[in-house]
Structures
1.
Amino acid sequence: MIEILKKRRRAVFYFLIVLVILVSSISVLWLPPEVSTGMNSTGSQNITEQESGLSSLPLYIPLFAYFALILLPVIYKRYDGESFVWGHRFFKGAILGFILITMIFLIELASGFLRIEDLIPDFQGILIAGIILQGIVAFGEELPFRGYILPDMQKRFGLWKAVIISSFFFSLLHIPSILVLKTSGVSIIIMVLTLTFAEMLLAFCYLYDGLRMSIGFHFAWNFFQYHVYSMREGFGGIFKITSGYQLVTGGNLGPEAGLLGLFVVIMALVIVFIWMGSINQESQQTQV
């Protein structure tokens, strides 16, 4: 009987996570065109006084959704009498995320795929808002997926199946928001693959040290991609850039929709996998 109740409670958790993410993704469709496109060329939001009323209410739905994503695993963990594995290496994860996204940015810049047209004046507000936003996003995605779902699946399916299934599950939940971007079929496939491999990389960060490392990586990857290097349209980065060769760079959709981003994430995944394997071998040898 207790086992049945646990399964039902777990099913409710998964259902709520899917529901919250779907509502958050679909809410973008309810925004006026000026709001949904984010920032204009001067870095200020394209929101008129009339649009700041009821028509812009869906703008806050993703924010509420992320707070729900943070609270749900906290409530469930407490109810189950379990605690999160936090770890200690936030900055190690942040440095890894910074290095990877900076590598992509510099390669695109050096190859001429991306050009910096201008620096947005008074960008301090953009950076502060970006830190707050990506902090919420990192916590809102890491707590449910690495903090709850990955350990839950690991108990039932084993480590490797849990890493693969939870990562693919996360990428599938992004499909509605990807479709909202009205991108091509090839870009959708690339984005799903990139997100899946990126989630596996985040899973390895979690398995190596815990949530602090995966949160650090997630935060730095998003913050520098969106708000510093301006590689994704609609997030108001500090640079005004133009990018071509969409298949390689992802264009306005950012490196997650481009082949270069996919290649760098896979390369990092392989390196981290080999590195973690060597650490495990060393620990086993010391135990013997």
2.
Amino acid sequence: MKRLLPILTILAWIVLGVVSIGSDCSSIVGGAPTGLQVTADTDSTVKITWNAPAEGTPDKYIVYFQETGTSGYTTIANNITTTQFVHNPNGKTGTYKVAAMFGSQEYQSLTTVSTVPVATSALTVAELNAAGNSGYGWNRTSGAGATYSMTQAANAANVDFYITDFQTTTYSIASPDQGPTDPGNVVPAGSWRVNGIAGPLTAENAPLPAHSNTVYFNYQDITQTPFLAGIYTQDGYYALAKLDGFNAGDKTYQVSGWFQLIKGLRLIQH
């Protein structure tokens, strides 16, 4: 019995030690990054930023990207120790999320950020002197497109382009500021946006051309349908307009739009 007691005492201390170690391990608390944001680093690369978890500084961060049209995320950075990362998506758009690693435990952000442009289904846009709205513009908060009358100066802050026939039988997509001097003579003076228009473009999902005065002009003749037009707005946004379904009798087009909510980013894959 005397020999057994020391052995039992040693075993008890071992058990207590294991329990203590287990308790220490379970006390390691981690958390997910918060406050994810995405901005344009250049006109074709993006910067993802976030806040460190409230629980403390993790060992590292992992950044994930899901390309538009795919079903899963891929790891694009797995050893980040700062709270930002610049990604070159090679012309692609998609969704980002970030995870914090505490030891072997991964805590993924509860929110994601996206560079996918906001799509607006086809809307009817009329020639300036035809019946119906001839102006079209995108909401800077939601990215949604809508049509507007060019005969009301109150709409100047909403319009990004309009359709006109500067010359008989030739239709054009034009910057709103061209309205007051348009031969149609129905657009009042106002603070109409001075936007640039590029086209016809050949690839609907390719990055839009970088803004340049040799590429973007105050109007483009609609030489074909569908007609793809890149829009660079006065306030620094990129968008794509697709003009199709021309109705010669009504002098209307069916216009679909894609607006890139990330200011200065010309990626438009959708």
3.
Amino acid sequence: MSASILVIEDDEVVNELITKHLRANNYRVVSCADGRKGLDFAISQTFELILLDIMLPGLDGLSVLKEVRVHNTTPVLMLTALGNEQERIEGLRTGADDYLTKPFNLEELTLRIEAILRRYQHANQPQQDNLLSYQQLSARVPELTAIELDIAKLLAANIGTPLSKPYLYQVILHKEFGRYDRTLDMHISNIRKKFKHVGLDPAVIKTVHGKGYMFTYMPDFSAGHS
């Protein structure tokens, strides 16, 4: 069955353009133009992805995102204004998986959606290897989003080895590393906070200046461990 996507965008033209494009690509789409109504949809129905604009009537996008994260870890792709870096940082800090800056190309939107959905589906598949599994991670740290699970699992598979930002951008975020892009930094910050919230040592993820990030040791991810 095709993925179900919630579009929350108040610009009528943009909303219709996105909705038609997604339906033409066989996605099931629910769309609305109001933040409060969008929040109701997001917490009362099940979606594989939410496309969320920042500037919304009723309830702004960041407030919607904060409330969504109280209820579930559905992947969220934020739609932000050109040049508004603070909005993007705040969105990532609040739990967005990625962002797309307006105006955007529909092909780029499709690629971002496909990448996020692949991560989401991968995170929900049973793991057969002997490495740290998504199931272990999500059971121990249930607040982790799909992209955060991907980052943590990759770092855990390379204990003691720094993974560079360009490498992590390519493998996890599926885009080129930009010198001023803080997307990865915000995801790492979120993982550390969520580790600390469940009693794990946030310092297990070390910033290696000039090289990247690494796990310094393997924490106990046993479910129920305290």
4.
Amino acid sequence: MKVIFLDIDGVLNHTLWFQSEERKLVLEDNSRAKWFDPKAVALLNELTDTTEAKIVISSSWREGYPLEELTEILRLQGVTGEIIDQTPSLTFKQITPAPYIVPRGCEIQAWLEQHREQLADRLANAKYVILDDQSDMLLCQQRNFLKIDPWCGLTPTIVEKAKVLLW
């Protein structure tokens, strides 16, 4: 199984999209706002279509929505790839009651460990890519991590690199 760990903010929605005239026109014409850049969504769809990779949500959006609702939001925004899961939200309490947030790379690694039989004979051989605008990934994930510029979001260049990682 091939997996795309998908962040949303900075990947499917980004600064240029929020500032674009196209988004303003969409908002005027449609009461249901387009949260995501249609070009970024099309690129994600191209990636899932050509590689047959499944999507696992690693975005902080998983904190605000159950998986079923988040899947519906992504569908309404045009995402066509199969969304199979979300990474666990890991926190631990220190001496103070405020939770410490575990780096996203640890959450992705926990998901990989839980699903290792489905992925490959060894995790080192697993076919996955991490699309994220944050850099809190583990050292062992660096070859599978494609850092997205939150200014412009998912680009054709990133999609081509992701295809290479997933083939």
